């Protein structure tokens, strides 16, 4: 399941992008699953301004701290600060063979666009089950509710 496929030689570089804000079990699950599918795993941690532009949310934890947290858990081989929303730009910098996303992207306009962009580069898109019970959005809502009480 893990190593080089028929068209790949050398180590398979995997890339798992995410905000990784309010680090939770869903983030851990995604990183653990991605680790099984590649030889070298790079986590792309989305910059604060990119999060704001693409999700409309300012991360609670600053980029430098999110990079440090993801690197410190010992699952990834490297971290990369995504300073643009373009995964093509990330591919140019990192040179990954596989990109990992939650299955909440599968079949959506953004997922299909990602698949098309990555196919043109020879990159495989692999989807993992999205952890429904925990998300940074759900944590933000719970914290806001507690603060309002």
UniProtKB/TrEMBL annotation:
Keyword Transferase: yes
Domain of life: Bacteria
Residues annotated as domain Cytidyltransferase-like: 15-141
InterPro entries reported in the protein's UniProt record: Archaeal_FAD_synthase, Cyt_trans-like, Rossmann-like_a/b/a_fold
Keywords recorded for this protein, A-Z: Nucleotidyltransferase, Transferase
Gene Ontology MF terms: glycerol-3-phosphate cytidylyltransferase activity
The EC number(s) this enzyme carries: 2.7.7.39
Top EC class, one word: transferase
Protein name: Glycerol-3-phosphate cytidylyltransferase
Species assigned in the record: Nocardioides aromaticivorans
């Amino acid at each position: 399941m893990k190593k080089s496929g028929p068209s790949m030689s050398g180590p398979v570089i995997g890339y798992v992008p995410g905000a990784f804000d309010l680090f939770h079990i869903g983030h851990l699950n995604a990183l653990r699953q991605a680790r099984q599918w590649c030889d070298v795993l790079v986590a792309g941690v989305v910059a604060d301004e990119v999060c704001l532009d693409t999700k409309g949310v300012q991360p609670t934890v600053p980029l430098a701290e999110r990079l440090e947290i993801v690197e410190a858990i010992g699952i990834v081989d490297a971290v990369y600060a995504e300073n643009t929303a373009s995964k093509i730009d990330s591919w140019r910098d990192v040179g990954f063979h596989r990109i990992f996303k939650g299955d909440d992207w599968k079949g959506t306009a953004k997922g299909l666009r990602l698949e098309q962009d990555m196919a043109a580069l020879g990159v495989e898109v692999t989807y993992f089950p999205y952890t429904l019970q925990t998300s940074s959005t759900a944590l933000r809502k719970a914290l806001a509710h507690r603060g309002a009480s």
